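Course exercise 7: structure representation. Students receive a sequence record and must write out the corresponding structure in token form. The form below is the worked example handed out in class, using UDP-3-O-(3-hydroxymyristoyl)glucosamine N-acyltransferase (308 residues). Read each field label carefully; the graders check that inputs and outputs are placed in the correct fields and that the protein name is recorded exactly as given.

STUDENT ID: A-19
EXERCISE PROTEIN: UDP-3-O-(3-hydroxymyristoyl)glucosamine N-acyltransferase
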Amino acid sequence: MKLLEPKTLKGLAEFLNCEFSGDPAHLITGLNEIHRVVPGDLVFVDHPKYYDKALSSDATTILIDKKVECPEGKGLLISDHPFDDFNRLTQHFRPIRFSSHSVGEGTEIADSAQIYPNVTIGNDVRIGENVVIYPGVVIMDRTIIEENVVIGANSVIGHNAFYYKKKETGYDRLHTCGNVHLKKNVELGAMCTIDAGVTDTTIIGEGSKLDNQVQVGHDTIIGKNCLLAANVGIAGCTELKDNVTMWGQVGCASNVVIGENAVVLAQSGISKSLGPNKTYFGSPAKDIRLMYREMAAIRKLPEILENM
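STUDENT ANSWER:
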């Protein structure tokens, strides 16, 4: 999430009523969670396991719950509750905007777009030429839809990211301030759900096709010409390179990369990154040649045991 104008380290410390370390005039140009940070961004960290990752990341400002040495060229905000204070910042700079109309404020829709009845479109949405949106679709704020995109009935584009912190009082959700970008020639089946990036953008690449009831988690990037069959579920912060195929009911864990031209067969479970140009099967998903050898060996086990 980019700020409309840069903020100083001292200014944000005063807003949050917390201490800071670094140049008071140090500038913050955006707010992002750790997987999508770029120089100028502020990131939060509230667990010792991830201190080094946050401090050495591309983020140039770190909201942290411990006094540590400030890396050169960076700034620190020291907070007792970084998660809560990060939420305060995102809610302040990008608050929820309620809309009681079928089309929100600041939305631009191309004249050639075909939008069926009972479609709800949020604020600041961009809809390109020759887009077709079927009945019951919900398109949340800041979604970008390029030309020739088709969205099947009752799909939801840009709903809140599934990102929670467990506390003694229950689960607190990280405020969603990102969006979704559907690139040209994308087709979504009925009842697909594409979650918004929690602070950045969930991307469906040019020419990719998603069958009915496909779920794509926050901040995931799907490449060009990918094919996802019905009931595929992809967790947040995952990347599919170009031309990936996932057949029905494949489940994919978060923060993994699926290589170019990979094919994952039906009902497989992906728990770690998969290389390019191979076919995978099973749970956890493995190279299909290895899986076939394992399955053949298992079939021989009764005979082996009888002969022991």
